[in-house]
C-alpha cells in the first residue's frame, strides 16, 4: 500500500506542475490522434463493408477510360451551385454537398493533401495516388473530451485514460476535372461505443451518422493549407440548407434500381460521395461510362466478428470481398443507378438490392 500511495502522490504532484505551464488546444473543434499501433479489444458488431489494403488495384477490362487516365481525356464539366472563388481555390455547393475545386494539376495537389491529414494527427489505411484516394485510420477527436482541470492534467500524463467514446475516419477523393484542375471531396464516417444491454456489462461499437460539420471543418482547413486565408476559408463554409429528398428505389424490367431525379453530373457526384460515406472500397472509376468499380463483403448470413478486431488487426474475412460495378446512367431528365457484377451484367440478387438500399439510405 505504501508503494501505491507514494506513486499516487508523485503523479499528483506532477499533474499540479504540468497544469500550471500548458494547455491543449483550448476552444479548438478538432484534436485528433490516430489509434495507430494500439491494440484494441475485440468488440461485437462490424460494418457490412470491407476495408482493403493500400495496394489493391482493379484492372478494368476493355480499355475503358479510368480515373488514372482522366487527365488526358476531357469529361463533361460538373454543374454546381453557389461557388465562391478564392484565388485558384474555390468551394462549390449543391444542396447539402460541398467540395473544393482547385486550378492546379493532380500531381501538384496530391502531396499537399497527403501531408495535410498527417499534420492533423491521422495515419492512412488507403493511400493510392493513381486513383486519387486517401483514407485515414480510425482516430479519436480529443477535443470532445471535457477539459476540466483534472482531465486536462491527467490527459497529459496518462494519454488515453479518458475517451470520448467515438472514433472517426475520413476519405479524400481527388478527381481530375475538364479544366485541368481537380475536384476534392472529403467524407466522414463515425462509430460510437455503446453498452450492449441494460446491464452495462460490456460495450460494442456501432455506426453513428455522418457529420457534415466535420467535413466542412476539414474542407476549411484544407483551403488554408492550399494557401487561402483563414478569414476567406471561414467565409466559404456556410451553413447547409435543407433540400428535399427525391431519391427512390424502383423496380424496372423485373430489376431493382435507384432513381435519382437529377442530371448525370449531379447523380455521379452524389453516388460517389455516398460510396465514400458508406465505406465501399472504390478501386477505380470511369466517368465516361458512368461506372464505379467497387468491392463489397456481405456479412448478413455469417457470424459477425468484432468491428475493431477487423479494422485494426488486419484479419482476413472468411469470405473475400466481391467485385461489383455501380453503374450511373442518364435517362431523360433523371439518372438510374444499378449494380452489375464484375463482367458488367446487371444483377438483381439479394446482395445487389442490399447495396442499393445502403446507397439509398445515405442519399436520403
Written overview of the protein:
This protein has about 375 residues and is an alpha+beta fold. The chain has eight helices and 16 strands. The protein has helices at about 1-20, 105-120, 150-155, 210-225, 230-235, 265-275, 305-315, 350-364; strands spanning about 30-35, 80-85, 90-95, 95-100, 125-130, 135, 140, 165-175, 180-195, 205-210, 250, 255-260, 280-285, 290-295, 320-330, 335-340. The strands form three sheets. Strands 2, 3, 4, 5, 6, 8, 9 and 10 form an eight-stranded antiparallel beta sheet that branches. Strands 11-12-16-15-14-13 form a six-stranded antiparallel beta sheet, covered by helices on one side. A two-stranded antiparallel ribbon has the order 1-7. Strand 15 (about 320-330) and strand 16 (about 335-340) form a beta hairpin. The chain is globular, with a radius of gyration of 22 Å.
Amino acid at each position: 500500500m505504501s508503494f501505491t500511495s507514494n506513486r499516487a502522490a508523485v503523479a499528483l504532484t506532477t499533474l499540479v506542475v504540468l497544469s500550471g505551464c500548458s494547455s491543449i488546444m483550448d476552444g479548438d473543434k478538432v484534436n485528433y490522434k490516430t489509434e495507430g499501433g494500439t491494440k484494441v479489444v475485440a468488440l461485437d458488431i462490424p460494418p457490412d463493408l470491407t476495408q482493403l489494403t493500400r495496394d489493391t488495384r482493379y484492372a478494368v477490362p476493355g480499355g475503358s477510360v479510368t480515373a488514372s487516365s482522366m487527365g488526358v481525356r476531357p469529361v463533361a464539366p460538373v454543374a454546381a451551385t453557389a461557388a465562391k472563388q478564392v484565388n485558384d481555390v474555390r468551394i462549390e455547393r449543391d444542396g447539402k454537398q460541398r467540395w473544393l475545386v482547385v486550378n492546379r494539376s493532380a500531381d501538384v495537389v496530391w502531396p499537399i493533401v497527403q501531408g495535410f491529414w498527417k499534420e492533423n494527427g491521422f495515419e492512412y489505411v488507403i493511400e493510392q495516388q493513381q486513383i486519387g484516394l486517401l483514407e485515414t485510420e480510425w482516430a479519436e477527436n480529443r477535443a470532445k473530451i471535457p477539459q476540466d482541470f483534472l482531465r486536462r492534467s491527467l490527459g497529459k500524463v496518462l494519454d488515453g485514460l479518458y475517451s470520448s467514446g467515438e472514433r472517426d475516419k475520413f476519405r479524400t477523393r481527388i478527381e481530375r476535372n475538364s479544366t485541368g484542375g481537380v475536384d476534392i471531396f472529403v467524407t466522414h464516417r463515425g462509430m460510437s461505443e455503446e453498452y450492449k444491454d441494460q446491464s452495462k456489462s460490456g460495450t460494442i461499437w456501432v455506426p453513428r451518422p455522418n457529420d457534415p460539420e466535420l467535413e466542412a471543418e476539414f474542407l476549411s482547413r484544407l483551403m488554408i493549407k492550399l494557401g487561402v486565408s483563414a478569414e476567406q476559408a471561414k467565409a466559404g463554409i456556410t451553413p447547409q440548407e435543407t433540400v428535399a429528398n427525391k431519391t427512390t428505389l424502383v423496380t424496372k424490367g423485373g430489376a431493382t434500381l435507384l432513381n435519382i431525379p437529377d442530371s448525370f453530373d449531379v447523380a455521379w457526384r452524389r453516388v460517389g460521395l455516398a460510396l465514400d460515406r458508406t465505406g465501399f472500397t472504390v478501386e477505380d472509376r470511369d466517368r465516361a461510362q458512368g461506372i464505379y468499380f467497387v468491392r463489397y463483403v456481405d456479412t448478413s448470413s455469417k457470424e459477425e466478428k468484432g468491428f475493431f478486431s477487423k479494422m485494426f488487426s488486419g484479419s482476413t474475412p472468411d469470405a473475400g470481398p466481391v467485385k461489383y460495378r455501380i453503374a450511373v446512367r442518364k435517362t431523360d431528365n433523371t439518372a438510374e443507378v444499378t449494380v452489375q457484377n464484375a463482367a458488367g451484367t446487371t444483377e438483381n440478387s439479394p446482395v445487389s438490392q442490399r447495396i442499393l438500399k445502403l446507397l439509398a439510405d445515405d442519399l436520403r
